[in-house]
Each structure stands twice: as C-alpha cells, then as structure tokens.
Design goal:
It is a single chain. By secondary structure, this protein is an alpha/beta fold. α2 links the parallel β1 and β2 (73-77). Among the domains are: 197-343, Isoleucyl-tRNA Synthetase, domain 2 (Alpha-Beta Complex); 543-720, Isoleucyl-tRNA Synthetase, Domain 1 (Orthogonal Bundle), CATH 1.10.730.10; 724-807, 2-Layer Sandwich (hypothetical protein PF0899 fold); 810-874. It starts with 8 loop residues before the first helix and ends with a helix. The protein contains 27 helices and 31 strands. Strands 7, 8, 9, 10, 11, 12 and 13 form a seven-stranded mixed beta sheet that branches. A four-stranded antiparallel beta sheet has the order 6-5-14-16. Strands 29-28-31-30 form a four-stranded mixed beta sheet, with helices on one face.
Length: 875
C-alpha cells in the first residue's frame, strides 16, 4: 500500500478507534491472566473535557495500554458522577431561564427535569475521551446513580447506621447560601482577603464605661448571647461578673471567662455568637448559652435578627458600619487580612450554621485507613502526599453526609407519625420496621415521611472500586474476586480527602483490603507563566481544538513531556507542536525505510554490521530503563527516553549508518533487521502514541483482520553489550567533531577527508562507521599531526583533520578576521567596564568574576584566532 507523503492524524485516529471498538479490544472478562484494573475518577455527568481530564486520562491510558502489552488482562472501567450540587445548580438555572422556580415544582417533577438534563448532557465527556484514544471497556460504563450503584449506596448507609456509625443531630455545619445546602469541611476553600477589623463598643450594664470588641463580622451582633474574656487577662479584670449591652440590639448579655480567648487579639474581648461560629458554638455548649440563628438559608437576615430583616448579609455589613458610627458605638476600623471560607462548588462565602444533619463517625474509619498508607501497603507517588494524608487522618472530624438537595441518593430514613424514624433500603422494609417499632400493623406508607435530603455525592463515589464490580450487592462475586483490589489509581491531590482516603476506608470496611495498590497523583495543569488554567482567565485551550490541530498523539505527547508525577504542569502549546513534529519524524522514517530497494543477494556492509550490533544493545538498554521508570511512575521520563531513542539513536544515527548510497539497494538481511527494530520502537511508543503506532504497525506487513499492536505481548531481551555501546558514544563524538570542522571550514560533505589519530585509536572497532558517516578516505595513527590541521580532543585522545588543499585559504582568513574584529570589540567593552572604578567598587563579587571570565575567554579566543590566521598566511 502506498504510504501518504504526510501523516494525517484525523483520518488515522477515527479509523483505528472504530477498529479497536469493533473488535472489542478494550473489553475484559475474568480469565487465567494476571488482572490489571483501573477505575476512572468519574467526571461530572454533565461536564466537558478540560485539560486536567486530558492529563489524567492520558496517564491512565498509558498505564493500561502498557499492561496489555505485558500480557495482563487490562480492565479500565469508565463512568460518570451525578455531581449533586453542580448538576442541580445547572437544572435550577435552566428552569429559571424558562421562568420556573424549583420551589414551584414537586420533587418528582424537578427530578424529571434533572434526568432530562442528564440524558441530554450526560456522557458527552466520555464520548470526548474516545478522541483522546482512551481504551476504556465501554461496555462496563457506570453512573453513580444507576440502579446497581444506587442500591449499593443505600445498603451501605443502612449498614453503617445499624453499626452505630451514622447518626443524626443538630451541629454546626458549613452552609452554602447559594446552593442552599450543608457542605463538608473539605468542600470549603479558604482564601486570604483584605478585610476590615471593626472595634465595637458594648456598654457595661449599670456603668458609664464600655467593653470594646474587635470583629470582622459586625452583621452577626444580633446573634450575640455572651461576651467572653480570658480570666488571666489583666486588662479586662474589671469585666469579671459584669453584663454588657449589645450595640444597636440593646440585649443584655453576660461576660463569661474562658482561656480559649486570645489575650493578644484585638482588645481581648470576644463576642460569642453560638449560631454562627464553630468556636462560639463550642463555648455556647460549654456554658449553656442560648443560640440565636439570625440568617435565612439564602444568607439574608431572618426575623430572629430583629434588625435589617430580609437584607443580604454583606449589604448589612456596609449599613451596620454606618449605623454604629452614627450611634457612637464604633470606636475605630482597621485594615485586616484574614482567611475567609468559600464554597468549592458555588464560590460564595460559606456561613457557619446550626443545622440538623446526618453524620458519619470517622474515628473508626480513620483507624482502619491510616496504617496501610503509612506502611506502604498502598503506595503514593510521589510519597510526599503521605504526610498530607496522615495529617488529615489524625485530625479527622465526623463527615456531614446529608445535603439539602433533591438530585442525588435520597436518604433512606422514614419518619414515623408519632416521632422517631426507621432506616431501610426499600419502602417495603421501612414499612415493616415501622409497624414493628410502633406495634401498629395498620400503618401504611402514606403514614411515613421519607427524609427530604439526599446524600453527599462523595458517599457514592467512595464505593466506586467496589460498586463497579457489584461487590456491595453481590459480595464475593466472580468479578470482585478477580478485579479487586484494583491496580493503579490516577487522580489529583486536591481530592485526596474527598475521595482517595474515603475509598481506602470503604475498601477496608467492606472488602477487608485495599481498594488499589498504587496512587499516582497528577499535578495541576497551569499555563506557561504558572497560572492555573481556568475558563475565567481564558488561558485554557479547548482539548478538542488541540486534538484537531495537532492530532491526539501529538497532544498526548505534549501533555506528558510536561507532566512529572505530583508536580504542576506548565503547559505550553509548543509542546503539542513538538508532539506533532515527532509524529512526522516517525512517519518519514518509515517512508524512508519502505522506499529502499532490496537486494536479496547483497552482503552486509561492515558499517551496517556494527550499526545492528550497537542498536540492538541500545534499544535493550533503553527498554530496561523505560521498564524501571514505569515501575517508579516516572512516565514523563519514560516517554523522553523512548523519544530520544527514536529521534537521536534510530533516526539520526542508525538509519544513517545503514542507509545505502543514492540509487543503491539495501541487503535483505539489513532491511529485515531494521523493520524488526522499527517494530520494537512502535511497541515501546504505543502506550504513549497509540494511533500512529497502530497505523504503521499495520502497514509493516499483511495483518489478519482483528490483529492489533495494542494486544501484542512485548518484552525485549535484557542483553546489553555495555562496552560496545559506550565505545560507540566516543565514535559519535568523533563524527560530530569532523562534521563541525566541515561546517566551520565550509568543506562540502562530498569532499573526502583524512582523519589522523595521535596515539592509540579508541574507536578502532567503528572505523567503517566513522569512514561512512564522516566521509573519510582513511583513518591513520600518527605521531605528529599535519601542519595546519584542524584538531580536537575526545577524552584523552587528540584527532586531527589535515586541511591542505581542502579549504579556500583567502575566504577562511576573511572569515577569521571578521570574527577577530568582533571579539576585539567585545573585549574592549568588557575592559571599559573593568577600568571603571565606580563599577569595580560597587559591583557584587559574582558580577565582577563574570566580567573577568569574559575578559579571559575573549583574550584566549583572540590569541587563538591570530595564531590560526598567521598559520594560514604561511601556506
């Protein structure tokens, strides 16, 4: 088949992806082979592909494709996450654009709209991953709210409740006033802000004086129920046992004492608002203080505030400053920098709020999940994240698992008519339990009311490695026994608590063992100047546009060249261009080989014999290095090693060494061996660049329908002739020096040169190669080099190239004189600086050293040029 002159990724990629799918080459079923299992970190069901997904899924695909070629039964399970908060917000926005409020709809009607949205947008991202070449077993595609996963979630909730690990109670939670739901601590992002510190005057009851409180949130004074001082604070001793009056509100509150108060902060007086600060809440519990919730769920002030009712909290902050000032109750305002918690999902400031929620006790979970990571049963790459993991586990808080949303797994708790509740997986079980609990067999489902809340999205994804193989509903089934624990998890460090830690907990709780053996943490994709890529900054390219422009293989390579494990990726589009150029290099190398005429009877030239022996060892050496790097999850370095092997060693050296003279044929033996090497290179490259490697592998020989490079077992010989490989590095240096002389002296490649070796020849083994590659007539060992010869050192050996009659003397003198003039001008500039007393006295030592080095180097080059010009003039 005629090979196109140019590589066209668009044609090739679509063709082979369809071929792989048609022949079910991504499909996996349990068999006698060693399993290699990867579960996809499920992207949001209504999401679209971004650069972070590109990186993460490229890495997973590289690992999966390599495992297949190692003879393992590779199973990469795809799926999506229902993403409660994000998806519900999108559905609410769409309804609002149609003039419909969520509150106007019943739960059932709202969920119809949510499922419509999911059906419309869901799975787009999985379709996009196909463009990248992702070799997922698409027949296994799962969704966190499909029947199997939903049943698993409800069963786990009921089981943990029955074990006494899930409880319901009023606790201080992080409240998102936009999404109108509680959040876990891990869903709060703290940002440093330039705020104000307001000093408020609280009148001391029955006296003329004031106690002054410093606060960043004057809008919460309507919820104050006490003032607190440190009993050891000398400046506030006069307030002990007193009462103070809340400014504007005029409520009388007690002064309590607790050493929690920081004597150094502000005035040492703390306003205590138990309903709106987690630390105040603890003080409220300790001293039995009343709690006044002054905020509505949407962040406006409630009737309980008594003032500013219905106004937004931040509008109130501006207004109350003016009102306190007018009332003479604002002592001063200072600029202040503090950290403010924002909702990770909606990017609004969270509000600490007392709320009835469901919680999962985490102490037991942390105990079972900490040790396996600390003792490397589960390995983290890079290992620095073990400390982050340990710190979180040792300071863990109970997990708030309920969300005030309708889109998600509804909490399987059913409230009874006379109070209390039962927890059950199905309505039938709930009714039976309710009848037993109340002793009333006449109860019907109409008498029960299911909890309105749904579960935190992460409560389904923490079961992902188990629920994908139906391990909760069907414990010990064939697939869970074969595929679990999974092999590698590839994810971002930003979800180490949300997801990684919790999957480890669920794994040990429900399977008694780890959910995965290794965790590879990717870095954050940033632009070339270090900013995190985001839509708002407009610095994130559309991955599909990149694929259209550079081809999937080019983009995969561009991503991986910049992607060391755990470190941020400074992405530059020029890396994709480098990837595309590499595709073209591979393509052109294949066209060159295929274009040679073959002579069945020709003998093998000595240079080709040497080249074959050298490259066989070199490829084996690099293959062993790549295997070692894969074992350490240093994939970026592994790709670079294969890249150099192909571009430098194979294309620039091996092919040049065996290439027949123009118009001449190549021996069948050399041609076949070269194709064999090319086949090995394609297999080494395949995990990184699946499309071009499949295309060329198929073109190498006639293949059977259904054959593919991706399922070829591949392992190279471990033998490496190390001395031979090292000696050839010396030969390469000799050749490079001769080529450099040709360039400097303007000697055409077709002109034969002689090479003189002063002393023992360190490259005698490669004489035939050097003669061919440098176009030499002969290599001779001499005691003294020819006069006027250009010489160079390689190691401790001097080599010389006689130049008599080889160069245009006048042209060479003119070139050297021009260079001499330039160097003398440069030296003059340096000397001017060094003769300037002011510069010499004030410049740092390092700068002076650099200038003196420039002087010495320039003087040395000038002397050498003068010597060379004089020698040429003698000729």
């Amino acid at each position: 088949m005629e090979l196109a002159s140019k590589y066209n990724p668009a044609e090739v990629e679509e063709k082979w992806y369809e071929y792989w799918n048609r022949h079910r080459l991504f499909s996996s079923k349990p068999d006698s082979r060693e399993p290699y299992t990867v579960v996809i970190p499920p992207p949001n069901v209504t999401g679209v592909l971004h650069m972070g997904h590109m990186l993460n899924n490229t890495i997973q695909d590289i690992l999966v494709r390599r495992a297949r070629m190692e003879g393992k039964n590779a199973c990469w399970v795809p799926g999506t996450d229902h993403a409660s908060i994000a998806t519900e917000a999108k559905v609410v926005n769409r309804l609002a654009s149609q003039g419909i409020k969520k509150t106007d709809l019943s739960r059932e009607d709202f969920l119809k709209h949510a499922w419509e949205w999911t059906d419309e947008h869901g799975g787009i991202i999985l379709q996009q991953l196909r463009k990248l070449g992702a070799s997922c077993d698409w027949e296994r595609t799962a969704f966190t709210m499909d029947d199997k996963r939903s049943e698993s979630v409800l069963k786990v909730f009921v089981d943990l409740y029955n074990k006494g690990l899930i409880y319901r109670g009023v606790r201080m939670v992080n409240w998102d006033p936009k999404a109108l739901t509680a959040l876990s601590d891990e869903e709060v992002i703290f940002k440093e802000e330039h705020s104000k510190l307001f000093y408020l005057r609280y009148k001391i009851e029955g006296e003329d004086g004031y106690a002054v409180v410093a606060t960043t949130r004057p809008e919460t004074i309507m919820g104050d129920t006490a003032m607190c001082i440190n009993p050891n604070d000398p400046k506030n001793q006069h307030l002990k046992g007193k009462k103070v009056i809340v400014p504007l509100v005029n409520r009388v509150i007690p002064v309590i004492e607790d050493d929690y108060v920081d004597i150094e902060f502000g005035t040492g007086c703390l306003k205590v608002t138990p309903a709106h600060d987690v630390n105040d809440y603890m003080l409220g519990e300790k001293y039995n203080l009343p709690s006044i919730d002054i905020f509505n769920d949407n962040g406006t002030l409630s009737e309980a505030a008594g003032l500013y009712v219905g106004q937004d909290r931040f509008d109130v902050r501006k207004q109350i400053e003016k009102d306190l000032e007018a009332a003479g109750l604002l002592e001063k305002v200072e600029a202040y920098t503090n950290k403010v918690g924002y909702s990770e999902r909606t990017n609004v400031v969270i509000e600490p709020k007392l709320s009835m929620q469901w919680f999962l006790k985490m102490e037991h979970m942390a105990q079972i999940a900490l040790e396996p990571v600390m003792n490397d049963d589960i390995k983290f790459y890079p290992p620095k994240y073990k400390n982050t993991y340990r710190h979180w586990m040792e300071n863990i808080k109970d997990w708030c698992i309920s969300r005030q949303l309708w889109w998600g797994h509804r909490i399987p708790a059913y409230f009874l008519p006379e109070g209390g509740y039962v927890v059950a997986v199905t309505e039938e079980e709930a009714l039976k339990k309710a009848q037993e609990k109340t002793g009333n067999p006449a109860l019907t489902m109409a008498d029960l009311r299911q909890d309105e809340d749904c579960l935190d999205t992460w409560f389904s994804s923490w079961l992902w490695p188990i629920s994908l193989f139906d391990g909760i509903n069907n414990p010990g089934n064939e697939e869970i026994k074969y595929y679990y624990p999974t092999s590698d998890l590839v994810t971002g460090p930003d979800i180490i608590f949300f997801w990684v830690a919790r999957m480890i907990m669920a794994g040990y709780e429900y399977e008694g063992k780890m959910p995965f053996k290794n965790v590879y943490f990717t870095g954050i994709v940033r632009d070339k100047i270090g900013r995190k890529m985001s839509k708002s900054l407009g610095n994130s390219p559309d991955p599909l546009d990149l694929i259209a422009q550079y081809g999937a293989d080019g983009v995969r390579m561009g991503m991986m060249l910049a992607a060391p494990a755990g470190n941020d990726i400074l992405f530059d589009e020029s890396l994709c261009e480098q990837g595309r150029n590499f595709n073209n290099k591979i393509w052109n190398a294949f066209r060159l080989i295929k274009g040679w005429e073959i002579d069945e009877t020709a003998s093998v030239p000595e240079a080709s014999q040497k080249a074959i022996h050298w490259f066989e060892s070199k490829q084996n050496e690099v293959a062993a290095e790549v295997a070692d790097l894969f074992g350490k999850y240093r994939l970026s370095e592994a790709l670079m090693a294969v890249y150099k092997l192909f571009w430098d060693e194979f294309s620039s050296w091996y092919l040049e060494m065996i290439k027949p003279a123009y118009g001449q044929p190549i021996s069948r033996s050399v041609y076949s061996t070269t194709l064999c090497f090319f086949d090995n290179l394609l297999k080494l490259l395949h995990p990184f660049m699946p499309f071009i490697t499949e295309e060329l592998w198929q073109q190498m020989y006639e293949r059977e329908e259904g054959e593919s490079i991706m399922v070829q077992y591949f392992k190279l010989d471990t033998y490496v002739d190390v001395p031979y490989v090292r000696q050839f590095e010396v030969a390469k240096e000799v050749i490079a020096n001769i080529r450099s002389i040709r360039l400097q002296k303007n000697i055409a490649q077709k002109e034969e040169l002689e090479l003189q070796i002063l002393g023992t020849n360190p490259v005698a083994e490669f004489t035939a190669v050097i003669k061919k590659m440098a176009n030499l007539s002969e290599l001779t060992s001499v005691e003294t080099k020819a006069e006027g010869a250009a010489s160079f050192m390689v190691g401790t050996t001097e080599f010389a190239v006689p130049l008599e009659n080889m160069i245009d003397v006048e042209a060479e003198i003119a070139r050297m004189e021009a260079e001499l003039k330039h160097k003398e001008g440069f030296l003059q500039g340096v000397m001017k600086k060094l003769s300037n007393e002011k510069f010499v006295n004030n410049a740092p030592a390092a700068v002076l050293d650099l200038e003196r080095k420039k002087q010495a180097d320039a003087e040395s080059i000038i002397a050498s040029l003068k010597e060379s010009i004089a020698a040429l003039r003698k000729q």
